[in-house]
Amino acid sequence: MSYNLLKGKRGIIFGALDENSIAWKTAERAHEEGAEFVLTNAPVALRMGTINTLAEKTNSEVIPADATNLEDLENLIEKSQDILGGKLDFVLHSIGMSINVRKGKHYTDQNYDWTHKGLDVSAMSFHKLLQTLYKKDAMNEWGSIVALTYMAAQRVFPDYNDMADNKAYLESVARSFGYFFGKDKKVRVNTISQSPTPTSAGQGVKGFTGFMNYAEKMSPLGNATALECADYTLTLFSDLTKKVTLQNLFHDGGFSNMGVSQEIMESMEE
Ligand SMILES: NC(=O)c1ccc[n+]([C@@H]2O[C@H](COP(=O)([O-])OP(=O)(O)OC[C@H]3O[C@@H](n4cnc5c(N)ncnc54)[C@H](O)[C@@H]3O)[C@@H](O)[C@H]2O)c1
């Protein structure tokens, strides 16, 4: 169903790799809600992924940008405003990557070059993005910037590895930069803490299926899907949430406030 929630709004969506990506679903839904936007991803991901199909479907252009590279970000933000015909109303940061996770390097035995790289891609890129948008004065008043995160920032999930630290940094940047963006430009900055979701990044985490099944059994409403995450993200881009900022918002079927569920109790008694 479409509500025209984003009619007339312009934005940038990072991170649509394939049709499972949360950013992919967000782009499809944003298009249905009347938004116009530019799609972006790292050059290597553009070669591997299928973003052109999404671009055709949503009538949008694709601009390559490595989110760790300031020149790429500057170019992306300038060109996006040219293409869209004005300042931006929304930006989605849907980016995550840990080489330690990918290569199965244990948290107690980090390769710190990889840790640095993962921090830069997954977390510092958000500061770089915010700073570039801020310096270029590229956001309209009452605009909205969202990054995606996971609850391992607050609680221990052993196999989430260094991504837990990256997410803690990311959420802190949303608050710290969100203060200045709110005060100086009337722009909101939030993170959405999403349920485990079967995407390329999600499935890279060791034991992901067990992780997902556990969360499903713990959450009174069950895990939130990528499409449901897209829908929630759109509400934050809309004018219906103008005073929501500096928040880490759990979108997880209730998981984050659970102690134990009946189903988990029963499985322990077997
Ligand atoms: N899947 C889950 O279980 C889950 C749960 C909570 C939060 N998240 C978060 O959601 C976000 C989106 O991930 P997803 O699950 O849709 O997986 P995904 O693999 O589809 O998306 C991750 C994206 O990050 C992009 N990326 C990697 N390095 C980049 C760089 N240098 N510059 C620009 N882009 C780069 C990838 O190309 C990819 O498009 C991530 O922040 C992830 O941590 C995912």
Outline the fold blueprint.
Layout: E1 10-14, H1 22-32, E2 36-40, H2 43-48, H3 51-58, E3 61-62, H4 70-84, E4 88-93, H5 99-102, H6 112-135, E5 139-149, H7 163-185, E6 188-194, H8 200-203, H9 208-218, H10 226-237, E7 248-251, H11 262-269
Parallel strand pairs: 1-2, 1-4, 2-3, 4-5, 5-6, 6-7
Helix pairs in contact: 1-3, 1-10, 4-6, 6-7
Nicotinamide-adenine-dinucleotide binds next to helix 1, strand 5 and helix 8.
EC number: 1.3.1.9
Family: Belongs to the short-chain dehydrogenases/reductases (SDR) family. FabI subfamily.
Protein name: Enoyl-[acyl-carrier-protein] reductase [NADH]
Question: What do these coordinates show?
Answer:
By secondary structure, the protein is an alpha/beta fold. It has helices at residues 22-32, 43-48, 51-58, 70-84, 99-102, 112-135, 163-185, 200-203, 208-218, 226-237, 262-269; strands at 10-14, 36-40, 61-62, 88-93, 139-149, 188-194, 248-251. The protein has a 7-stranded parallel β-sheet with strand order 3-2-1-4-5-6-7, sandwiched between helices. The protein binds nicotinamide-adenine-dinucleotide. Nicotinamide-adenine-dinucleotide is lined by residues 14-15, 17, 21-23, 41-42, 45, 66-68, 94-97, 121, 148-150, 194, 196-197, 199-202.
